[in-house]
Each structure stands twice: as C-alpha cells, then as structure tokens.
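Worked example 2:
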Amino acid sequence: MLHSLDSPRAPAQAASARRADAPAAATAYPLVNHHDLATPIAWRRDRVHSVEEFLCAAQRLAVSLPRARFAINLCRDRYHFAVGFAAALLARQISLLPTYRAAEPLQQLARRYPGAYLLTDQDEGETSIPRFCFDGETSTESSPAEIPVIPADRIAAIAFTSGSSGFPQAHAKSWGSLVTGAQALGRQFDLTHSASRTAVGTVPAQHMYGLETTIMLPLQWGWTLHAGHSILPADIRADLEHLESPAWLMTTPFHLKALLSERRRLSGLEGIISATMPLDRSVALGAEREWHVPVHEIYGCTEGGMLASRRTTAGEAWTLCHDLRMRHSGETAWVMGGHVGAWLQLADRIKLRNQRQFLLLGPNQDLVKVAGKRASLTALNEALNRIPGVVDGTFYRPDPGPAGNGRLRAFAVAPGLTRAAILAELRTRIDPVFLPRPLYLVDALPRNQTGKLPHEQLKTFALHIMHPQRQAHE
C-alpha cells in the first residue's frame, strides 16, 4: 500500500488526523511522516540523508534481502539500522532486536527462530549464522513519489528484555503499536506543534527505549535522527556542536552522570529524556543547572513501551500517558489502552495517587528481608551511589545456597575511597542490618550498553570477585 505525496492529504496530515480522532483504530500507518521528500531524515557529521534517499535505500534493500522470515538487525549506525528495519518491513520480514552481541546468545537466538540471518553494517566476528552486510550506500536513480503505508497489524519486530531480572524475554511488536507508541511519546512531551528536531541517543536502537525515542519518534514526527552511536561524553559534545537543528538527548542515568561529571557546556540541546533505571534527582538538578534544559524521565517496559513520564526535578510522581488507564490490587498493578492494548501486568510495585499519577516503589523482586526488616534493592543502590566519590555501585543478593546464606554483598567503583569510609557513610543512610558483608572495591561493573546490569552477567562477575580461586580452577 502506498500514499502519494501529491494527494490532497499528505501522510503527515493524515497521520495528524488519526492522532486527533482515533489513533488505535487505523488499519495502516505511513512508514515516515515527513512533509516532503527533500526533508532531512538522518544526520551525520559529514552528510545529511533525505527522506527520498532513505526510501530509495529501504526499497532497494528490501528486494536484495535473503528470503527469510526473520532478520537479526545488528546495525550499529542508527541510519543503517533504520534503513534495515524499514527494508525488512517492506519485505514482510520480522526484525529481531537482541540487546546482546555475544556469539553464543546469537546462536541460541538463531536456533529459536529458524532461518534467521544477521543484518549488519560491520564485522560481527566468526559465526555460523548467515549474514547480510549493508554499508548504507545506495543509488537514488529511481525516486519514489509515494511513501509506503504499512498495515497496522503486521508484526514489525520482536524486542527482548535486558535480562536485568533474569533471562531476556521476547515480545512481538506490531507496526500499529510502534506508531501509536511514538505518537503517545510526542504528545506526552508536547511535541505536536514543534519544529523539526534531532534525536541524539546513547542507547542502541535495538533496545525498546532506543527504538521508540531514536527511530520511531523521528520517523513519525518529521524529526531527524542522529546516525551515529556516540556514547563517550566527548563524542556526544562534538555531535551536538555540529547539529543545525535543536537536539533532544535520549540517554540513561549512567551515561548522563558520566556526561555531567565533565562539567562541560553542551550546545544546541533543547531537552533530555532518561530511562532504563531511576534517575537520581541530584543528577537531574545538576544537568538542568549546567545546561539550562528540562530533564524528563520515561517509565516503561519492553512489553508495553513508554507508559508514563515525569520531570525529575519537579517531584517523585509519574504521569500516565493520556490514552492509558491503570488499576491496582494488592501488590500488583496493571495498565491498558492506547498503544498498550489489553490489560498488561507490571513487574513493579506501584502506589496510585489518582487516575493519572502514581509513585514507583521498585521491582516486585527487589525486596530483601534481613532480621525481620524489609528494604528495596533499588533504594539501597541509590543510597550507595549518592555517596560522594562513588562513581558506580550496586548491591548484590546471591542465590541462597544449601545453608540459606544469601546475605547482601555490594560492589563499588570509588577511586580514592576506602571500604571503611564507604561503609561509615552507608551506615548514616541505611538501616545497619542491610550493610553489605562484605563490600568489594572494583574497577568497573559489567553494565551493558544501556547502563543496566543483566542478572547473569552480574552473577558471573560476582562469583569471579568473591571466589577468584574457584573461577581460576574452572
């Protein structure tokens, strides 16, 4: 299905009408929502890609892809990812979006989805999985006069949880849910009538949060996406300095804290969105004071996408997306409506304030009990990371052994601090029964690209630190 740019109602106008009327009722949505083919859709320091170039690239790639049902999109360059994602859609293939790149997990993924191949823009190392390399270079000899329109019920992607609370879980995403999710994201931050902006991200496009904010938001709101995948503060600063339009930085608390620690000016920044884990209010305050832009947080999950947001410096309460409803019973909360669809059970403990606002108390699994007292691992981690001089840190609760010895440990990256100093400071911030026994000083934690600590990686890391001799023998 195609939608002509020469028709009386262009795709951008049609999509706006759907947003105002009944976004969930549409049977199809355009691939992009820009006003004309000459509009920039992707930016890199040495080149700007137009909508026309993007559509030509996607259509030409679609006919070149291997005949398969699943494409594992590992493209690091965000423009390459977007072209590959669009091409798979046009070829009626489902994009698999793993949050990992290690050979063995990818082999397991390929076995789970027979016939899947790697769609990549660089060497991924030795693997038996068939691969299709895409360098982003395409001809624009045949210019498209129409923007493809994709059925809303077509499965566009399968996203995976980060594995921070166990093994990654798969969740299928229809094109309609991705589009209406992007529309909800724009409305949540009042972007409906804004001029063109550039989305700059430190989060991989394969992550659900990265897909929503750095791919779907630009495609559906006429924005430009930043083609790179900068993570280091110096690279982010350089990218922002070269941009011609105001930018929104889509990042994580881990990356934002590193960026703020440099105390350097950021030019061209209009707003910051953070997600993947709670953002410390002191970091948000520092960012707003240093760069004079609002700092927002997104609360969501792989299953439902973005569910709520808050301006971190304005208070603890989260505001639900306009089309969503939430209900609460005992320790369990559910959300439904809009891009989420039917009732979805949440994995977090929530306290409702009213129909639109709630407090987030932490994951259901993060409660620990010691000597008859209860505490949240999230709260304990926040207390540890607020200590001046602690660059990074986490509490760790091992699986109870035969003797039930599952006492709390902690790992801290704190150059210049001693264990005794950190424990003394912790004693003033948490109940002493929850003090870690012991506390380990380490050079770094095994965080992934989004700043999270996947459960299995943290478990392996902890075993290596706590039992180095046993690991050496194994």
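The chain is about 30% helix and 30% strand. Confidence is low (pLDDT under 50) at residues 1-24, 401-405, 470-474.
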